[in-house]
Amino acid sequence: MELTKKRLAGLTVSLTVIYFIPLLYLPESIVGDRPDNFLLFLPRILFFAITAAIATAFILLLLFKRDFITGQLFAFSRYKYYIGLMIKRDFVSRYRKSILGIIWSTLNPLLMMIVMAVVFSYLFRFDIPHVAVYIFSGQLIFNFFSEGTSTAMNSIISNEAIIKKIYVPKYVFPLTKVLTASVNMGFTFIAFLFVLFFSGIEFHWTVFLVPIPIIYTFVFTLGISMFISSFAVFFRDITHLWGVFMQLVFFLTPIMYPVEILPEWIIPFYWFNPMVHFVEYFRELTMLGTVPNLWANMVCIGFALASLCMGTFVFMSRQDKYILNM
């Protein structure tokens, strides 16, 4: 039986219903503390069920669409040299004609972190241990997402000349921008390690697990990038609105403030912000030296897979119309 889009959507909904009831009885060690108001606990379980359903549907998609997936991987391998050139061009052009060159990729976030640490240590005082590392860790993850999506948003539009002349898989353009953002984040992470070392925080072996939240953030960023780059071709206004939206997400993410200052009633809804989970996962590994539990991983995987599936579906279903709207 062929796994069509309609059947896949129906299967995902059915799996969500099947998973929902057993998940209600999971221990608190997996799903976290249950709030006194049971109605506030239901959204968490529903999200857990949706996450498991999406993961199952994703695995089935890989099994039933092996020929399509293999074809896409083959196409990607054919253009990997071109992708490498585009990443190098974007990265080098960013620091062209500057005296320090690529050193700015590490020095700039380090200087910004110093400014933020001074401001929030003396002007806006919060009871946050190691405030410099706290702020820097949040900015590292958020800036990766912000840069990746903001640059990828116009990737189809800015490559109009290439798309009209030669065939290149169109997903290559947003993918390249996200990969470039990940390279920049790699240099920023070097600066973060310096700060972590000189801050007096005990070094934990869990730092070596940092690639896990970075991969989660990368997949999530790629999915959102494909989604908004597709819509930007048809609705150019999104390029102006996205900056405002990113400011909103920034202030809704605990980068400059501790979660404890928020009112209790908003916490269950606050955790539906994906960036909260990616940032907290990164901080647990680097600052606290603890490995996030199964619930934390399932939430991050759920957001990442949901974003990737949604972005890929929208991008692939509209890509043949891009050239008509450029």
Would you write up a description of this structure?
- The protein has 326 residues and is mostly helical.
- The protein is built from 15 helices and no strands.
- It has helices at 5-23, 28-31, 38-64, 66-78, 80-94, 104-123, 131-153, 155-158, 160-165, 172-198, 211-234, 238-251, 267-270, 274-288, 294-318.
- Helix 6 (104-123) packs across helix 7 (131-153), helix 7 (131-153) packs parallel to helix 11 and helix 11 (211-234) runs antiparallel to helix 14 (274-288).
- The longest helix is centred in the first third of the chain and has 27 residues, at 38-64.
- The radius of gyration is 21 Å and the shape is globular.
- The protein starts with a helix and ends in an 8-residue tail after the last helix.
What is the succession of H and E elements?
HHHHHHHHHHHHHHH
- Pairing-aware structural class of the strands and helices? mainly alpha
Q: Helix proportion of residues, in percent?
A: over 70%
> So what's the oligomer here?
single chain
> How many distinct beta strands?
0
- The tally of helices reads 15
Strand content: under 5%
* CA radius of gyration: 21 Å
Query: Quick one: biggest sheet?
Result: none
- The low-confidence runs, each spanning 5 or more residues with pLDDT under 50, are none
Distance between the termini: 38 Å
Shape descriptor reads globular
Quick check: average pLDDT? 79
